[in-house]
UniProtKB/TrEMBL annotation:
Biased composition (Basic and acidic residues): 451-460
Disordered: annotated segments: 1-28, 451-474
SUPFAM superfamilies according to UniProt: S-adenosyl-L-methionine-dependent methyltransferases
Protein name: RsmB/NOP family class I SAM-dependent RNA methyltransferase
Stretches that traverse the bilayer: none
GO biological process: RNA methylation
Catalytic residue list: 386 (nucleophile)
SAM-dependent MTase RsmB/NOP-type domain span: 169-450
Binding site for S-adenosyl-L-methionine: 286, 315, 333
Family per similarity comment: Belongs to the class I-like SAM-binding methyltransferase superfamily. RsmB/NOP family.
Statement: the UniProt record of this protein carries the keyword Transferase: yes
PROSITE patterns: SAM_MT_RSMB_NOP
InterPro entries (alphabetical): MeTrfase_RsmB-F_NOP2_cat, MeTrfase_RsmB-F_NOP2_dom, RCMT, RsmB-like_ferredoxin, SAM-dependent_MTases_sf
Organism whose genome encodes this protein: Pollutimonas harenae
Amino acid sequence: MNSTDKPRRGRETRKAAPMRRQEQASPVGRPYVMAAARIEQVRSALGEILQWEYPADASLSHWFRAHPKLGSRDRGEVAEAVFDVLRHLRRYRQFAESGTGPAARRLAILGLASVFDKSVLNTGLSETEQQWLAHVQGIATESLARAVRDSLPDWLDERLASLDDADELIRALNLPAPLDIRVNPLKADRADMLKQMRAGPGLRYDPEPTPYSPWGIRLQGRPPVNRWPMFEKGEIEVQDEGSQILVSLVAPKRGEMIIDYCAGAGGKTLLLGALMRSTGRLYAFDVSAARLARAKPRFARSGLSNIVPVVINPDNDQRVKRLRGKAHRVLVDAPCSGLGTLRRNPDLKWRQHPESLQALRDTQASILRQAARCVAPGGRLVYATCSILPEENEEQVERFLAENPGFILLDAGKIASDRCENLTLEGPFLRLRPDRHQTDGFFAAALERKKETPVKKAVQEAEEAPQGHNGEID
Ligand SMILES: C[S@@+](CC[C@H](N)C(=O)[O-])C[C@H]1O[C@@H](n2cnc3c(N)ncnc32)[C@H](O)[C@@H]1O
């Protein structure tokens, strides 16, 4: 699960334009209408989202389409309140149990308390509601159990408890994220792009270079990046710095044959292709034709001509078979719980369950096994997720290595730091966390197929399969 590569919702922070609506900024009489109407809008949107039928951003987009009269500021405020509720749902539900009237309205009020100043919000509240809000806002959250205070389901709280500095991690996952973009190294230079942004549409979003990735720029607030000329020209893409660092582990070279095995909407494919300087052959595999279709306009904007998108079957795909033992590098950006991206997708903590995790683990192991067969002797296999759970990460890799002695584990931290200055990581794995690196939570391992281990079986099977020119597939 990864939806890190599109413009995100998130509260405006730091130097971005102040977001909390203040009474003095509104004409007389307006705050009441605004606050009262907004409470009803947020309540109504939450009514759809909390069914959990679809991801929250999809449900919210659906709700916006059903309310076309709302302007961009209205939508921004509704989105901000809704996402605040999703982040703090368990605590807010507990707070909403007290008080009178529909609890759904009280959830909306709590969400809007993060958007509006008290004076504005109070204009839409009854006396009793104002008293209730003041009461719950005065509760010392430190006295609550962590799962309530930081709003986690019990099963997730228990799993996260085993991680180092769990409290810091959980707190960071509950904060809204800034927006990272990535410069397309084929078309632009980061220093020039920073200048252009500061002189143009990016100025009010406080653009700064990302600390580790040489291609990243961090923006505060909710910049409408996809309407900016540099985006339309393919000079920039939205991509969390963590994803950029992860691609640096693949370290593709000019002229190589690379497979992005789970390419999805192509976020990582784009950077891989640019690092190959649009040479060689870059297969973008995915089982989802719809996701690959979403990647196509991005590929077109990027100016890359080395990408071959292929919709594959999850089992026994003949085109995959033909690439056995041939690829210099294979990236498996596996489908995962996405729990490292809670800053942007807080609904995932309510949409995932231990049972769905087990199914994901089986899929991950199966994809890793199949993708590994494509790696040439001496070639590199990178396994990555945007999860923070060991069962989707270290445990998968350790099991794979135990079953596949022809592969060895490389030092991912060292490889990443070759490309990403300032990045010092301990241990063989790449583990990024919002509390330590200000990125989403990511995991990656870099493996190498031993040179001396012939991919005998794989090659044999590849020879049996009908070949395209040079073992390529169309
Ligand atoms: C984490 S997402 C990939 C995100 C993408 N790499 C990016 O950077 O935008 C995982 C992808 O794996 C795909 N997937 C699921 N099962 C698969 C399989 N058996 N083989 C290949 N891809 C699969 C999903 O369709 C999804 O697009």
